[in-house]
Design a protein that fits this description.
Layout lengths: L3 E8 L3 H12 L4 E4 L8 H4 L3 E2 L10 H12 L5 E3 L4 H14 L2 H15 L2 H11 L6 E2 L3 E5 L2 H6 L1 H9 L5 E4 H7 L9 E5 L3 E3 L2 H14 L3 E3 L5 E5 L2 E6 L2 E10 L6 H7 L6 E11 L9 E3 L4 E6 L2 E10 L8 H14 L8 E9 L6 E5 L2 E8 L5 H16 L11
Parallel strand pairs: 1-2, 1-13, 2-10, 4-17, 6-15, 13-20
Antiparallel strand pairs: 3-9, 5-9, 6-8, 7-8, 11-12, 12-13, 14-17, 14-18, 16-17, 19-20
Helix pairs in contact: 1-10, 1-13, 6-13
Bound molecules: flavin-adenine dinucleotide.
Length: 407
């Protein structure tokens, strides 16, 4: 049988692939999306749901570098490493350390800030387009600093956010209590990002997005892309029960993109920061917005009929099973704030697609512009999906792109 054909094949149906497919189909292009699982069921399902337009600070900073050994190896640290994965992770870690040096971290923050500029408007537009305004909560996000000293030690981060024009309101502990009365009393203070938006149910948003994309004409193929190869001005995408020729291919397979990118001729230092969530079902929300106790590196997020506690970082690759210790750490952290919480109703592990400089890879392949890379969004994939879709559309349409193109 001759191969199937399409104008644009998107590999991966997470939030990046779905938002890109939606955008390109709405622009009148013929789009086929290749995804082996339920669309939107990877990292894009289980995240904290924040459209974090304020998160300009890369993961690697001088402060993180200084504290890296204790962060990585201290028991119950919010950042951990599976020792068995250490040799395989070494090249990524060395690059991460390099990117954490002051000048590099500054440069990365500037690039992230540029990308974030249209993230809120991008989500408002996308949610309207797909009939999902009801899944956007516009009530800001709150960072908590548990002591005055912790607040003081965040001054560099706060200064950087000010530099990039991020709206921040500084709250005393009493002011925090006034807006989130169910939080326990504490000593420090908070930073409210008043304009931030969050998704009240990322899984439901992914379902709406997939449905709207299908209605806009996107064809979904349930298959895993195993090989991509250029030839005769086209790209051949193959796998078990998959034989597709495309004029252009977009690699948007999240943390699984590395091998496909290498086949296209791009050797990207992509790895994964594994993250977890635990959920507690409840009818009456304990909070009215996402709250991040910063020292614990997770968000407590009120979602539809449940509280989701999502975050932390575990370096350990794509294959190891979930770590019961990491799940327990989240549970204990949640109960330290809300002691009446019982056992979680469900737990989840997901794979952030992470590059050492925290700047996603959104560009043409070095081997030719008929393959486009759109992955590596780390902690900000949900936030940056509409912006990424716009950038990919500009690359395909050969329109000038005001946003920086990164390595
Ligand atoms: C705990 C946690 C909390 C987070 N919180 C936030 C947050 O609050 N805000 C935010 O902006 N971001 C957050 N993130 C990050 C965000 O979830 C990710 O950056 C984002 O989901 C990445 O989207 P993606 O489409 O690239 O990847 P994914 O959602 O993982 O999708 C990739 C898809 O590609 C498919 N695939 C893989 N290999 C192939 C193949 N060979 N062929 C075809 N398809 C393939 C997979 O099945 C998958 O569906 C969080 C992440 C975690 C883990």
């Amino acid at each position: 049988m001759p191969p199937d054909s399409t104008e644009i094949a998107i590999i991966g149906g997470g939030v990046i692939g779905l938002a890109t497919a939606m955008r390109l189909a709405a622009e009148g292009r013929e789009v086929t999306l290749v995804e082996p699982n339920k669309p939107g069921s990877g990292a894009s399902y289980g995240n904290a749901g924040t459209v974090a337009d304020y998160a300009v600070i890369p993961v690697g900073t001088p402060a993180v570098l200084r504290n890296l050994p204790s962060l990585l190896f201290k028991r119950d640290s919010p950042l951990s490493i599976r020792r068995s994965a250490l040799p395989a992770l070494m090249p990524w870690l060395l690059r991460f350390a390099w990117q954490s040096l002051p000048q590099n971290a500054e440069k990365n923050a500037a690039a992230i800030a540029t990308l974030l500029m249209d993230s809120l408007s991008g989500w408002r537009e996308l949610a309207s387009q797909i009939g999902a305004n009801d899944l956007l909560r516009q009530n800001g996000c709150l960072y908590l600093y548990s002591s005055k000293q912790a607040f003081a030690s965040a001054s560099a981060d706060i200064g950087l956010r000010t530099k990039y024009g991020i709206g921040q309101e500084f709250l005393t502990a009493d002011e925090v209590a006034a807006i989130e009365p169910k939080l326990p009393p504490f000593e420090g203070g908070g930073v409210l990002f008043p304009h931030a938006v969050n998704l009240t149910d990322p899984g439901a948003m992914m379902e709406r997005l997939a449905k709207a994309a299908a209605a806009a004409g996107v064809r979904f193929i349930t298959a895993r892309a195993e090989r991509i190869a250029r030839g005769d001005g086209q790209v051949h995408v193959t796998g078990e029960a998959l034989d597709l020729l495309a004029k252009t291919v977009v690699i948007a397979a999240g943390a699984h993109s590395k091998m496909l990118a290498a086949q296209a001729g791009d050797h990207v230092a992509l790895d994964t920061e594994r993250g977890y969530h635990v959920e507690f079902d409840m009818q009456t929300p304990l909070l009215s917005r996402p709250v991040c106790p910063t020292a614990r590196a997770f968000y407590l997020v009120p979602m539809a009929n449940r509280l989701r506690v999502a975050g932390t970082v575990e370096l350990g690759g794509l294959n190891a099973p979930p770590s019961p210790r990491r799940i327990e750490l989240l549970e204990r952290g949640a109960r330290a704030i809300f002691p009446t919480l019982g056992k979680p109703d469900r737990t989840w592990l997901g794979f952030r697609p992470s590059v050492p400089n925290s700047v996603p890879v959104i560009r043409s392949s070095r081997g030719g512009s008929n393959i486009i890379l759109a992955f590596g969004h780390g902690h900000l994939g949900l936030t940056l999906a509409p912006v990424t879709a716009r950038m990919v559309s500009a690359i395909i349409g050969r329109r000038p792109n005001s946003l920086p193109v990164h390595s």
